Amino acid sequence: MHLELAKFEGKGYVIAPAGYGKTHLIANAVEATTQRQLILTHTYAGVHSIQKKMQDLAVPSSRYRIDTIASWSLRMCLNYPITSNWDKEFPSGNEWKQLYVACTSLLNKPFMKRIVLSSYAGVYVDEYQDCSTQQHFLVEALANLLPCRLLGDPMQAIFDFADQPVDWEQYIYPHYHNLGELRIPWRWNLAGSKELGDWLDGVSMSLRAGGKIDLNAPLPKGVERIAVDLDDFANPKRLNFFYRFLKNEEAVIAIYSGDQKSKNKTHKLAQLLRGKFSSIEEVEGKDLLSIIKQLEKEPSPGKRLLCVIKLAKKCFNSVDKVLTAATKRGQRGNLTKTTRYPDVLEATNNYLNESTSSNLLRILDAINRKPETSAYRRDMLNRMLKILRLHAENPDLSLMESAQRFQRDLRHAGRPIRHNKLIGTTLLVKGLEYPHAIILDADAMSPKELYVALTRGAKSITIVSQKGVIPI
Amino acid sequence: MRIRKIEIQNFRGIKKLSWNLPNQNIFCLIGKGDSAKTTILEAIRCAFHPQWNLAFNDSDFYFCKTNDPIMVEILFGDLPDEFCSDQKYGAHLRGWDITNFRLHDEPDDDDELVLSVRITVARDLEPKWKIVTDRNPEGVEFKAVDRTKVNVGLIGSYSEKQLTWAAGTALARITDSNNLSESLVDATRAARDSLDGQRAGALKSFDAAAAKSEGVAKKLGVPVKDSFKAHLDLSSISIRVGGLTLHDGDIPLRQLGLGSRRILLCGIQKESLDKKHITLFDELELGLEPHRIARLIKHIKDDSTGQYFLTTHSPSVLRELTVDQLYVVHKIADEVKVIATTGEKLDGLNIQGQLRSSPEAFLSTKVVVCEGATEVGFLRGLENYWMKSDYSPYSYIGAVLLDANGASKLKGLAAGFKALHYDVCAVADGDAIKQFSPEDADVLAKRDIKVIMWSEQLALEQRAMLDLPWASVLKSVELARKSGMSVHANVRSKLQMGLDRDVLKWRESDDLRKAIGDAAKSSAWFKSISGGERWVEIIEPAFNEVVFQKSDMGIKLNQLRSWLDHE
Predict the structure, then answer these.
(1) ipTM for this prediction
(2) What is the CATH number of the domain that holds B375?
(3) What domain range includes position B57?
(4) pTM of the predicted model over 0.95
(5) What is residue B260's predicted lDDT score, i.e. its pLDDT?
């Protein structure tokens, strides 16, 4: 199929289910052409994974440029700020939508056409199901200039409220040529779990056709069903199955569905598991930013300390056990013979004297090193530590500005977390790959969410479902 | 690629220059000796210099003032796709409206896409090449490899280097080899091998010394594996690219005449060029006879792949060019201006005709625009007379006479040459008011043009016959008679009375002077260049007489001379 893609001159799409060698296909197609191709995707993780594939297959770097749609558009607009009427270097929120509109009209300028035609001989857009409608119009403008190949899978089109992706029925199928569908579940074949791959292939077909999966039927090697109610707090054994995964070093992802209620559940669960599994944050890190905002607003050192304690409790278990009573009230405590952790007390007292980021760092560091505590929101904790360090090094920035700068770089650097037993939502893990996946509360998932969640585990998947026939 | 605009600051003799170029292939720069023509060519060469190591020194700065950095900024268009791509300079494109010479920092729909290269040299003498825009004034580096692609070649006075394969030369560019130095190593080995073959002859005495050393070595116990002999050490004799030069048989082509060398270079420069090129030709005429100049210019005119910048001091070159290819470089106080010889002010004045017939005028500094052949002849004669009196000839002071061919064109031509920044003097008759009125004279005078116009609305002949001593008047009539004019009939027709047939018997009177003047004018006694010249020869003895000196004509001839000498 890669030769066909390489030769293709119009507008076309390939249906590429998760784990079916999409990145490989792009790399092979690019290698088969002699001229430079523009490869667009959505996240830096996506950019890195295509980049890595290109290097693995020794595709000369002169043949391609890989970028996210966001950063490519931003660069083009900033290159010509008057024509594009765009000069924001760091757009946020709704501004991104405006950016795509600006870039789309920029691409209609004769000189931009010359630049595009001089720079590339074709376009590939990966993960097309994640494109917004504005992004689609932008790609459409490129497709009018260059051969354009979209790769994606409408079945993986899951989205957060208000971020409705492009409608394939309306915008793709009638206008783009069908270049085929990837058929081989490479991810599982390569991981040595062919049975799992074949089972998922069947699941995929069934879900696409609107069918259901019967977990009561015999399951292949690598698939396990756990029929417990995770919300049944009366049942202390309900979480026992998690501990089996701690025996080996391999990465595990536990996945909730993407609605707001489930997002909170990820952190609760991590807390219950005392950080053995750590929850991950959304890229935007809204929770953290709102705490920072509050911290900046607090008028007195005491209030600030209380805010810091609140933050600490969001990241660690058993924070109260390492604080003195005075500290908990936001007051200076006296060091006595019975003070359990003089270093924590000293750090909090220092913070009351001088609410600097370096003093805050010392508090978090001291708490972290106590045996009573355990970090369960490591992603958030690590972000906070990095922001504080950044702020300590750049005193001319405010804490909020430091946070925003960190946030910008995060898109490139990825989540600051090394712990490999994680809890997230479908929205946070789409496009990522782990050896083992746990589908939490599968009964609550839509077909698309279920499909995305099931396809994350390359060696095993564990499905928590009481009903047994999903989706409901 | 083509140059669209040139700006220079503090480079050699140029404090400041800004020149918008129309869409043309040939730009010939003329102007006074030190008007910085060559500096403009050098500036272009520096901006696109193909190597990273371009040496500057203090004397490259304007007045050696190294605190004011050298800056050359060149806008160039006709860009290859590669330069427009986003790996190269796609983010730095600007738009050029060539009709109105307007630069847009971001291209408009109808603009040509252009790039600005800026080379700056500060006190540290390190040149920096940048592609700049207003939106990114810091710019990005303009790499040597890309500068090479613009393909700028200078054919100047030190062009011997150019007939070698040294880096950056036209020969190197047309050579089909990725790595010249590597190819040369092979050449060096071949040289070494061939020497080995001639060992018995060429290396005999060296080998004898080697044999002696071998004996010493053995005696002292230094191990000798084979035997000692003299040989070339590759590391010390390796041929450098600059050492490889173009030969005709055994004769290096650098021994060719200067002109042939330069013509050949121009041809090679064009040859490199399936691609486009920009060729700079300093002093095009050097070493060439007029017919070879014509041939070279035809070659240049026929080449549509290149943009040529020429400088010249030769009328032979100008004769082969058209006015729209001609640019006058002029230094005014702190600024150097490049002025086109076409344009609104010069329309309808047949500048092209002047360029064919009087190319010298364009190479002079002072232009005396004469109303007609009589005036040109008369001023020629005056030159002869003045030279006898130890004044400098016109050529020495850089003055040239120009025939306007009639009073109607006099004003336009004088104003036109003034607009090109020449010093201009207009010599006009006063008798054709419709074509050249006293008001016209005022207009010219206000533009700082010296106007010589005979008083009382008289033509040159009429004025002369009134102002010359009577004896000179009669000599003039005699000259006309001898050259076949019917002087008696001519004069008689202007008089209300009888007239002796014998000229020498004519008695001086105001009426007769007037009639003679009228006749000389209307019957065109001296109306040719040679006629005017001979006339002056006859009458010049009178020029020193006090009475004549105080006459209108005498006063004005003195004014003319002092303008020639002092303006």
Answers:
(1) 0.81
(2) 3.40.50
(3) 1-151+276-342
(4) no
(5) 75
